[in-house]
Design brief:
The complex is a heterotrimer of chains A (667), B (380) and C (227). Chain A is mostly helical and 667 residues long. Chain A has 21 helices and 2 strands. Chain A is 66% helix and 1% strand. In chain A, 65% of the residues are buried. Chain B is built from 9 helices and 15 strands. Chain B starts with a helix and ends in a 67-residue tail after the last helix. In chain B, 47% of the residues are buried. Classes of the chains: A mainly alpha (667), B alpha+beta (380), C mainly alpha (227).
Chain lengths: 667, 380, 227
């Protein structure tokens, strides 16, 4: 590594001023905009004297509700970045046909598609889903917080750390060009030297620690902290999908951590896990990364299914059809999802017995998934359907997602996959199920639970505009891509020789602009709703006629969620309470035991991020220092035994009286 | 989808209308599985709209039955019908995966046309390089870059490998795709049933020059194939180890090129990851390992096994290099090594300029509008 | 009462008789309890199940490393093999130290349950020393291999060997750091409930590492040395 002793290299590793792309006007301009926006934001916070508030109430919070909100904010910010990548990619593809080269040379384009996939999965979809589960699940099971509140805060900041490293690559150095899964041997030291893949590895490792711990946290919460009377089979379906999703997380993220660690060893130390020579085996990487990768998509889609179950049931004013069947379907989907990873590389030549096994296993997942869809439909049957904000997303989801499922089952037939593997057909398929399934579900969830979190509904008009733009935009982009896949066009190309592809790519580029309007109107909806919040105010805590326990609290809920832990008798516990004439207690409140806020999560995650940065740039002294600091900070934190406090009975009385007044005001 | 395709001129859904029997069978599977799935999908979508419309809250005629949240009979139907469809699909998948196994020799040239008894498949050895394709014809003793030819209705036995990173060999009109991986050999069995010029590509991202890693697959008559071989043999170039090592250097959108002579044992050396003299081939390494390794000569053996790092060691930019190892400013306009400049200026020899074909070669990189019918008489 | 109404629900699901769901409870029925008004002891079992879940995720991490060793463990790249390198006598000593450390940790836990602080600390110290001894021997083994040219970079076999055994060693190292920290905390705050819980977690961790080592010892050393 050191050809000669170089003090500059000792201090800065391979970081230098040249790492900043100050020759590139577009990047400099982007950085300038981001920097200005950042300064404006920080300036505003300082001007209004809100640093103390932010630190005390948000950054150090262990309240699952606030952590959930922060996760979703992170997800929306990263959605904008990931979508910008998508926009650039589709415009480039539409322009770069025949004699035209477009505006992005290959070595830029490659970074953009790598960043797009990495950001959308790890820093948009995962935080979004985690945020939803974090906010809603404890409320639905009648708990006051998650099992490990400090760990929750730490997990969040680790995710932010990973996102920070990834975003940093835009302005310092370059990002990976090895695709969002960094296949070997391309991602190894011999074929992708440089900081790109290292940014990718450390960003994901930092975030991955957070995700694994979050998985442990939410499982323990579901298992240990349900309200009395809430047996597992009386739990809302969203909590079941949370349980299944986190079970998947806890089993698969160690695989990702280990695999990326092995790749890092190959790159940093020169080991031979995934190299071509010295006995390494690149097929091993393919297997390991997809053993993580396939269940990962079920981690994302199962909670979305849970959201649909809640929304359908509420807006059809009817209990979810086939509850037991839904639970079993969730479990079967989770179980089988561990058994199908090889369908991502049928074309590797594993032999017909192996290929058939994995193909048939992949098809089998369609059965419980189909059962879920039918159960939603039969919830609608003989229901009384209200087509309000959250429900229209369900209407968009079902036709969209089932077509994605169709193409998925098609891809599960190995010889059929042989002709469309890695093509734009495949790209259309997975976007079909991820956008149609996961994204629509998350957006439905936002429309549904926003009033609970913030005390006022979202503006319905802009919500509808956003939905229609998303739906029409999605099909405008991906229907042409299905066609292109059947024309033999493959993915990840920056240029096309054949001019006959251009009409399709142009339509797709128009489609992505429609989606852009969908995203912008979503943001606009948030803004408009804030300004109209008094007209949209939710006084009762139950604006939709909900069925589960979160609707029994005020909007937003008090810090302790429930003054008295609910006792559950039946499925749809809140609905049960309403119909059997419950009476909200107005007195007898006692002090409530709650965990304290702490800054340890921010510190530990910050040190981890610095460690990641130091490892990327080979700044060994900084890496050693931050690692030592990490250990020291962790140990110091364990010496803090004073982690909880009591909310006084007077405070509880005050908050409950506020709610009484609010309920009266809304009546 | 198909309607929109037909409406737009020049649309060729080659995957749905291929010219090789293996691809045809694979296409049939796509159609069959789509049809089977539509049996469920169409009712689901129909029910979605029907139920939504009928049971909307503003409809006074709709029955509202909040107690209807369980029905064993309905559940049985809901789980059984998809199960039956999957069983059918699964059976189809099992059978077809076995018959269409790329490693399995062909049993038919087309529907109701078994392979004649004494047919010898044409063997083609394929090596994916950065960022071009090398085809070696062991029987004919010729080789070519970025173009291959095959006689119609003769089984083709491809043996594939890679020089560095993974790629996939894919001719949509011909058959499915298969990965190419260094140090390993994959196989593909196929047959081309119609004459024509078909588009071939890599369908697995392999670095900067990936987008232009296309080649031309020419389906020709038996005489046409003889003519092609003769043309290749006429080339003075020899594909020996040195020529191969030169090919290993990264380059983009290479013109078609022929080699009249091929060094014997070269393909084995390529698969063995020992194209340079003195390197230890994989087979020898495996042999030693099976006998428990070789501690005594470990150090000398190690020097002979170095393969992946040769590019870095020789100062050539690796396929996916980023700052600072790329030697280029980050996110900058400088193209990676082996790539052509991106501007359109005719004088600067940019990427979209027509290349001057070598004498005897059929022209520049695969032209657009491929997957045409019988060759329309372009001169060689 | 709630059970009965549930059975009625299922039978009458289609008949709309369950429109009763929408009405309030029939007059005269006792209103069900919907809120827990008595103070309940905080459900404290969460930490142990959480730690167990973490341990299982760690187990999966090791499973990946074992799988890699399984795939790559015979790829000597014409270099040294396990039979050439492994000194089984040394490994036996190593194993004995680690197994003994598990026993001494068990003694520490017994002393903890009897609330004997000094004995607990004593046995913990011995556990730590055994663990340190294990690490010392392992480091010696590694440096020996590296001196002979059997570096992690030499072959896939050696890469997977060093990583699997090294990861285990790293876990033992963290375990020792944790052990020392806990000893300081126990000394400072006594065998309070929090500390007892932490000692139980470390106990699970320590025994888990022992089990992994059995796997390593068998799969890597014993089987690797056979040839």
């Amino acid at each position: 590594m050191f050809a000669h002793f170089d003090i500059k290299q000792l201090i800065f590793g391979r970081l230098s001023l040249e790492a900043i792309p100050y020759h590139e006007p577009i990047l400099v301009a982007t950085f300038a905009v981001v920097a200005l926006a950042g300064i404006a934001l920080l300036g505003a916070v300082t001007w209004f004297g809100k640093w103390d508030y932010l630190w005390r109430e948000w950054f150090t919070t262990i309240d699952h509700k606030r952590i959930g909100i922060m996760y979703v904010i992170l997800a929306i910010v990263m959605l904008l970045r990931g979508f910008a990548d998508a926009l650039m990619m589709l415009v480039q593809k539409a322009l770069s046909v025949g004699a035209s080269e477009g505006y992005l040379p290959p070595h830029h384009y490659d970074q953009i598609f790598t960043a797009h996939g990495t950001i959308m999965i790890f820093f948009m979809a995962m935080p979004f889903v985690t945020g939803m589960m974090n906010y809603i699940m404890p409320l639905q099971i009648g708990a006051r917080d998650v099992a490990f509140p400090f760990l929750n805060n730490f997990s969040f900041w680790m995710t932010v750390g990973g996102a920070t490293l990834t975003m940093l690559s835009l302005f310092v150095g370059e990002f990976s060009r090895a695709t969002w899964l960094a296949y070997a041997p391309l991602s190894g030291a011999a074929y992708s030297p440089g900081v790109g893949v290292d940014y990718y590895i450390w960003g994901l490792q930092v975030a991955g620690v957070g995700t694994t711990l979050s998985g442990i946290n939410l499982i323990a919460t579901v298992i240990k902290m349900r309200a009395p009377g809430m047996t597992l089979m009386k739990m809302p379906v969203f909590c079941w999908t949370t349980l299944a999703s986190n079970a998947l997380i806890v089993t698969i993220f160690p695989v990702l951590t280990a695999t990326l660690a092995l790749l890092a060893l190959d790159r940093y130390v020169g080991t031979h896990f995934f190299t071509n020579d010295f006995g390494g085996n690149s097929m091993l990487y393919m297997n390991l990364i997809w053993i993580w990768g396939h269940p990962e998509v079920y981690v994302l889609v199962l909670p979305a299914f849970g959201i649909y179950s809640e929304v359908v049931s509420t807006f059809c004013s009817k209990r979810l059809f086939g509850y037991t069947s839904m639970v079993y379907a969730t479990a079967v989907i989770a179980l089988v999802s561990w058994l199908v990873w090889l369908h991502h590389f049928f074309t590797m030549g594993a032999g017909p017995n192996v290929n058939s096994f994995f193909g048939i296993a992949s098809m089998i997942i369609a059965i419980p998934t189909g059962a879920k869809v039918f159960n939603w439909l039969f919830t609608m049957y003989r229901g009384r359907i209200r087509f309000e904000g959250p429900f229209i997303w369900v209407m968009g989801f079902i036709p969209t997602f089932v077509i994605g499922g169709l193409t998925g089952v098609l891809l599960a037939v190995p010889p059929a996959d042989f002709v469309v593997h890695n093509s734009l057909f495949l790209v259309a398929h997975f976007h079909n199920v991820i956008i149609g399934g996961v994204v629509f579900g998350l957006l439905a969830g936002v429309q549904y639970w926003f009033p609970k979190a913030f005390g006022y509904k979202l503006d319905p008009f802009w919500g509808k505009v956003s939905f229609w733009c998303w739906l029409s935009g999605f099909w405008t982009v991906f229907l042409p891509l299905y066609v292109l896949g059947l024309m033999g066009v493959t993915r990840r190309t920056q240029h096309f020789d054949d001019p006959s592809v251009q009409p399709y790519l142009t339509i797709a580029a128009i489609g992505v602009c429609v989606i852009m309007v969908g995203i912008l109107t979503f943001v606009l909806q948030l803004i408009v709703s804030y300004f109209r919040r008094e007209q949209l105010r939710d006084f009762t805590g139950d604006p939709w006629g909900g069925r589960t326990l979160e609707w029994s609290t005020s909007s937003p809920p008090p810090p302790y969620n429930f003054a008295f832990t609910p006792v559950v008798h039946d499925l749809d516990a809140w609905w049960d309470m309403k119909r059997r004439g419950y009476e909200r207690p107005l007195g007898g409140f006692r002090p409530i035991h709650m965990p304290k806020n702490t800054g340890a999560g921010v510190v530990l995650a910050g040190l981890s991020t610095v460690l990641g940065f130091a490892l990327i740039w080979y700044i060994w002294w900084l890496a050693a220092l931050s690692f030592a600091g990490l250990i020291a900070a962790a140990i110091t934190h364990t010496f803090n035994y004073n982690r909880d406090f009591y909310i006084s009975a007077e405070d509880v009385v005050r908050l409950e009286n506020q709610r009484t007044a609010q309920l009266a005001a809304g009546a | 989808m198909l309607i929109s395709c037909g409406a737009l001129a020049g649309c060729k859904l080659v995957v749905m209308d291929p010219s090789g029997d293996v691809a045809v069978q694979e296409r049939n599977l796509i159609i069959a599985s789509t049809a089977l799935m539509l049996l469920v999908i169409i009712p689901v979508i129909a029910l979605t709209f029907l139920f939504a419309r009928h049971y909307r809250a503003s409809n006074p005629d709709a029955v509202y039955d909040p107690g209807f949240h369980h029905s064993t009979q309905l559940e049985v139907v809901i789980w059984t019908i998809p199960l039956l469809i999957i069983i059918a699909l699964g059976a189809m998948a099992w059978v077809s995966t076995h018959t269409l196994d790329p490693f399995r020799p062909l049993s038919r040239l087309g529907p109701k046309r078994p392979v004649p008894a004494d047919t010898k498949p044409l063997e083609v050895q394929v090596v994916s390089l950065d960022w071009k394709w090398l085809f070696i014809y062991p029987e004919q003793g010729v080789a070519s870059v970025n173009e291959m030819a095959a006689p119609v209705d003769r089984p083709l036995a491809f043996k594939l490998t890679s020089s560095s990173v993974w790629n996939t060999f894919y001719v949509p009109a011909l058959a499915g795709m298969i990965y190419t991986m260094a140090g390993m050999e994959t196989q593909l069995q196929a047959v081309i049933n119609r004459e024509g010029d078909y588009w071939g590509l890599s369908a697995h991202y392999s670095g900067s020059g990936f987008s232009r890693m296309n080649f031309r697959f020419r389906g020709v008559s038996a005489q046409g194939f003889e003519a092609w071989v003769t043309q290749a043999k006429a080339s003075q170039d020899t594909l020996d180890r040195n020529a191969y090592l030169a090919l290993e250097k990264p380059s983009e959108a290479d013109p078609v090129r022929y080699y009249g002579t091929v060094e014997s044992g070269l393909y084995q050396a390529i698969i063995g990851m020992c194209p340079e003299n003195g390197q230890m081939c994989i087979a020898e390494m495996h042999h030693i390992d099976r006998r428990g390794g070789d501690e005594k000569n470990s150090e000398e053996n190690a020097k002979r096994l170095d393969y992946d790092n040769r590019r870095l060691e020789s100062g050539t930019e690796p396929s996916g290099a980023t700052f600072p190892a790329s030697g280029r400013p980050p996110q900058g306009p400088v193209q990676p090594q082996g790539m052509k400049p991106r501007d359109q200026d005719a004088a600067s020899g940019g990427i979209n300029q027509p290349k001057h074909a070598l004498p005897g070669a059929s022209g520049g990189p695969a032209p657009p509008q491929l997957n045409t019918g019988p060759s329309n008489g372009d001169s060689h | 009462m709630s059970c009965g109404s549930k059975i009625r629900e299922r039978r009458n699901s289609r008949q709309g008789l369950d429109r009763m769901h929408e009405m309030t409870a029939p007059p005269g029925a006792t209103a069900p309890v919907f809120f827990e008004q008595e103070q309940h002891a905080q459900a404290e079992g969460g930490t142990l199940i959480g730690f167990w879940l973490y341990l299982m995720s760690d187990c999966l991490l090791f499973a990946v490393l074992f799988a890699c060793y399984g795939v790559l463990g015979r790829n000597y790249a014409a270099g040294p093999s396990g039979a050439d390198l492994f000194d089984l006598k040394l490994v036996a000593v190593n194993t004995a130290l680690l197994l003994l450390s598990s026993i001494t940790y068990g003694f520490a836990m017994l002393e903890m349950s009897k609330d004997r602080l000094r004995m607990t600390l004593g046995w913990l110290a011995i556990t730590g020393l055994f663990g340190a001894g294990f690490l010392a021997i392992e480091l010696y083994e590694f440096s020996d291999f590296i001196h002979e040219g059997a570096t992690p970079q030499r072959s896939a076999f050696l890469s997977s060997f060093f990583t699997l055994v090294g990861t285990h060693g790293l876990h033992v190292t963290f375990g020792i750091v944790w052990l020392v920290t806990l000893m300081v905390q126990v000394r400072q705050f006594g065998l309070i409930a929090d500390n007892q819980r932490r000692l139980m977690c470390l106990s699970m961790f320590w025994h888990f590492l022992d089990v992994v080592w059995i796997g390593v010892f068998t799969f890597v050393y014993l089987m690797g040395a056979m040839r």
